[in-house]
Amino acid sequence: MIGRRIELRAIPEPAVLADGRALGNAMLRQLFIGQCLILALHLAWMPLWLIALAAAVAGHRYLQLCGRLPRAGLVLRLTAVAGLLAALWLEYGILYGMQGLIGLLIGVYLLKLLETHDRRDARVVVLIGMVATASAFLHDQGIPMAVGALLMLGWQVQSLVRLAGAGSAASAWRETAWLLGLSAPLMVALFVGVPRLGPLWAMPQLDRASTGLTDEIAPGDIAALSRSDARAFRARFRGREPTVSERYWRVYTLTHFDGVRWSRVTPQALSATLARPLADFMREGRRSPWQDENDPPRFTAELLLEPDSRPWRPSLGTPLATDSRQRYLADGTLEGRAPLSSRTLLTVESSGQAPAHADPAGAAFHAMLPPRGNPRTRELAERLWRESGGDTRVYLGRVMARFGEAPFRYTLSPPRLGSRDRVDEFLFESRAGYCTHYASAAAVMARAVGIPARIVAGFLGGERHPDGHFTVRDYDAHAWVEVWLEGGWQRLDPTAAIAPERIEQGPQAVRDGRERFLADAPFSPLRLRELGWANPLRLAWERLEYRWQRGVIGYQRGARGELLARLANGWQAVRAWLVEVASGRGLAASLLGLMNIAAGTVAAAWLGRRMWRRWRLDRDARAQLLALQAWLERRGLESLPGESPASHLRRLAPRAGAAGPALEDCAHHAERLLYAPLDEAERRQRHRQLAVRVAEVQRRLRRRRA
C-alpha cells in the first residue's frame, strides 16, 4: 500500500466575512496595528496618555468580540470624545493650536475603532490614518520621519487592498508594491515639475523656537544655553568662508537697559517714542536701504533656517541683501516678514562687520542709563576715563585690559547675582561670568562716560563639516558690544580679552564649569566627537541629513529651474555626442527621430495591449455571467428585482442539486474577476475556471431537467 503524504496549509483569516460587509478579526488587528504605528510617529511630540487611549479602545473591542461587552453605544462614544477634548485642554491649555489639533486628530483616529464594524468603516479608518501620517511632517521633516511615513503609507494601502478582496497578506503586499511602484514616477514628476503653491488657508502654527536665544538678556542667560545642543540654523558659503574670528552672527540689537536686563526696542516702539515715521527704523525689500548699493558683500551665505515662531534671521555682520523680501532694521539686524512654520532656505549677503551707518535713534539714546544704580561701576568708569585723558580708544582699551586681569574668570557656571546693582556685584564681588556678564559690564561702563554703546545677541562660531557647511547650535549663542567710534559702529568683544579660547574653539574649550556643557543633552551625538571611530559616522549622518533638508525639503522654484536646466543640458550633450558620432547631421537627426518614434511606438503598443487584454477579460467575465443568467431565466430560474448576478447564482445553488457547487464557484470567480485586484496570470486562470464552471452548470441542469 502506497502511503500518501498530505500537506496541511493554514487557511488565511478573511479580512471581510462571508456576508461581504462585516470585518474579520484579521482586519481589525490590521487596523489596530496601523494605529499603533502611526501613533509611534507622533509619540515624541504628543502626550504619552494617548498610548493608554489606544490600549483602552483595543481592549474594549477585544472584550466585545469575546461577547463580554456590547457594542459601543452613542453615550459611550460621546463620553470618550468629551474626555479626549478635556484631556487635550488640560495638556495644552487651548484646542485651536497646532499641537492641540494634531492631538485631536490622533485621538479621533484611535476612537474610530470603537464604531468600526464593516468595510465602509474600515476604509474611513484607513483614510484618517493617511491624514494622520501626513500631519506627522508638521513635527519633523527629517529622513527618519520620511522613512516612517513611507512605511505607514504602504501599510495603509495594503489595508485598502485587503478590504478590496485580496486573498492573503502576501498577495496584498505584492499588489501594494505594484501600486506604489506605479505611483512613484508620477510623484517624482510632480515634485520636480510642479511649482510650489502657497497655502489656501491659514492654520495655527506651533509656538516653538529653534533656539533659546531671546530679544532680552540678563547676566547668566546665555550661559544656560551651553547646556543645549539644539540646532539654530545651518549655513553654506558661496565664495570666501569667514575665519573663526569672523563668525559673528548677529540676531538681536539690545539698546534698552533697566539696571538688570538688556532688551530690544522694536521699530514700532521707537517710532511712537521719538515721534518719527516707522520707515526711519524699518523697511522691507531685498536690499538694505541703510547701506550703499555699490558696497560689495564680503560674504554670501545660504542659510537653512529651523522652524521658529519668532521672525529673526541671522546675518554675518550687517545684512546687505537677500534673495526674498525681508525687513531691514536700522540697528543692523534682519527680520522676516512672518515666523517660519517649516525649514526654509534664505540667501543673505552681508558685510561681516558692524553697521557703518548711524542709528536714527541718535547717540543720546544709546548712551542712556537709569538715573540710579551700580554706583561703584560708575565711579570706576569715571576714574578710568580721567586716567585715559578723555581718549575713547584708550579708555576702552583700559576696560578690556581690566577684564583680562586676575581674579576675573570666564565660566560656564557663573554664580547667581541677586542684588539690585548686578553690574557692581559682578565687577567687585563675584568677578566670574559668561559673555553676557562681561558684555553688560562693558556696555554700562561705556555709557557711563557718554560713549554710545549697545549689546548684540547672536551666535559665535559654528561647527564646520567636511563638505563645507556649518551648523550653529544653541551652545554657540554669544553676546558682544558695539560702540560708536569715529563715525561708525565697531565691535567690542570682552570675551576675547578674558577667554580667547572661546572665540577660537567654542564653548567646549572653556574649562571652568565644563560639566555644564551639554548638561541638558546627555545622549547628544556631539558627545561622540572625542571618539575616533564614532565621530566620522556622526558627521556622515549630519551631512546626509543636511543634503536631504536642503535638496528635498528646501526644493524651491530656483532649484526646480536649475534641475530642469541640468536635465535639458544633459540631453543636449547626449544629442551632440550622437551627432558627432554619426557620419552626418542629417543621418544623426534621422537616427534620433527613428529611435524616439520606435521607443514611443513600443511603449504605446505594450500599454495598449495590456489595457486591451484587461478590458477583454473583464468584458468576457461580465458577458459570460449575463449569458448564464439569461440561460437560467429561460428555464424559469429568474432573478429577483435588484438582485446582483452573484446573489442570484448563490440563491439558486442550494436547490440546484449537483449543479449547486458549480453555481457557487461561478459567483465566486465572477466577483474576483470583476472586483478583486488580480495580476494577469491569476486573472487568466480564473477566467478559464469560470468558463469551465459555466459549462458544468449548463450540463448538469440539462441532465436534471431531462
TrEMBL record:
<dbReference type="InterPro" id="IPR052901">
    <property type="entry name" value="Bact_TGase-like"/>
</dbReference>
<keyword id="KW-0378">Hydrolase</keyword>
<protein>
    <submittedName>
        <fullName>Transglutaminase-like enzyme, putative cysteine protease</fullName>
    </submittedName>
</protein>
<feature type="transmembrane region" description="Helical">
    <location>
        <begin position="96"/>
        <end position="114"/>
    </location>
</feature>
<dbReference type="InterPro" id="IPR002931">
    <property type="entry name" value="Transglutaminase-like"/>
</dbReference>
<keyword id="KW-0645">Protease</keyword>
<keyword id="KW-0812">Transmembrane</keyword>
<keyword id="KW-1133">Transmembrane helix</keyword>
<feature type="transmembrane region" description="Helical">
    <location>
        <begin position="32"/>
        <end position="57"/>
    </location>
</feature>
<dbReference type="GO" id="GO:0008233">
    <property type="term" value="F:peptidase activity"/>
</dbReference>
<dbReference type="InterPro" id="IPR021878">
    <property type="entry name" value="TgpA_N"/>
</dbReference>
<feature type="transmembrane region" description="Helical">
    <location>
        <begin position="121"/>
        <end position="139"/>
    </location>
</feature>
<dbReference type="Pfam" id="PF11992">
    <property type="entry name" value="TgpA_N"/>
</dbReference>
<feature type="transmembrane region" description="Helical">
    <location>
        <begin position="587"/>
        <end position="607"/>
    </location>
</feature>
<dbReference type="Pfam" id="PF01841">
    <property type="entry name" value="Transglut_core"/>
</dbReference>
<dbReference type="InterPro" id="IPR038765">
    <property type="entry name" value="Papain-like_cys_pep_sf"/>
</dbReference>
<keyword id="KW-0472">Membrane</keyword>
<feature type="domain" description="Transglutaminase-like">
    <location>
        <begin position="427"/>
        <end position="496"/>
    </location>
</feature>
<feature type="transmembrane region" description="Helical">
    <location>
        <begin position="69"/>
        <end position="90"/>
    </location>
</feature>
<dbReference type="GO" id="GO:0006508">
    <property type="term" value="P:proteolysis"/>
</dbReference>
